[in-house]
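Researcher: I'd like a structural prediction for the single chain below. Treat it as a standalone chain; there are no partners to consider.
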Amino acid sequence: MKQNDSVALCSLRQGDLLKNINAWALGAAGLILLMLGTARAETPIGVPDKSHPESVTATSDGTLYVGSFNQGGVIKAAPGGKTEQFISPGAGGSRSVLGVLADEKSRTLYVCSNDLSGSGVAGPSETKGAWLKTFDLGTGAPKASFQLKDPKSLCNDIAVGGDGTAYVTDSFAPYVYSLKPGGTALDVWATDPLLAPAKDGVGLDGIAVGSDGHLYVTTFIPAKLFRIAVKDGKAGEITELKPSRPLDHADAMRAFGGDFLLVEGAGRLDKVTVTGDEAKVDVIKDGLAEPVSVTQVGNTGWIAEGKLSYLLGPNKGKDPGPFAITPVPLK
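Model: Treating it as a single chain, here is the predicted structure.
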């Protein structure tokens, strides 16, 4: 072997060694990231005692925002679990907080605020009625307020379309409202007797924009699923979907790729696949403690377990125990 050949072979071996070292380092880094992700996915995030979370949303960096049904305000949980008060109870004239939705495109946190004093939940302010409140997603500063029109309205949840229009469900009246970017008031976007709450029931609840561009909503009692066709930004035909099994207290709904994540108040997180007018319901996780909402961060679903029966139901007056946002693997 010539000297030049020996030098070339040595260089090649060094290059291979460097490649192997780099590959090992990348593999180790990937493993560490995977382990970190798994560690977070296995660790519930605590929220304040007796706060009864009603909704949870997330930004793309994994930060969670959690609203309180009774105490009001919004808690912010950074990746890793460190929590802080992001929106103070009563800020911007808010009261009891139900739906929350982070829209990174407009840098807006949408918040459903309601006066629940008639149900024995005083909340942190004296604001009457049902409102959609907006806050700056970076600072938490109040931006604007929009009142739902019906005296008996209940602002429940929010979804945002590709054009930036926000859609809001009203649980006590058969309305889906819309708020266009820059709008100054809510408009009734869709209404139909199909969406009206049954006697002694609770109507519209969860809402999500499907990959087909149509809007999908749930009703809580009785539990049903509906598709509201969207054409040129306007509401079209409203279709009740046929689930593959009966639902029990259909609550929050979030887009999940081409499917949906659905929370059932009976204790389940489901994946819902819509084909035509049929909805295939597959259980992802059962045995949750009165879940009310879900948001997705990567391959993890974060579940708000509200335990609202300890405020409004048969467990009223009993100790609900600690509260947490519970992680559930989605894949």
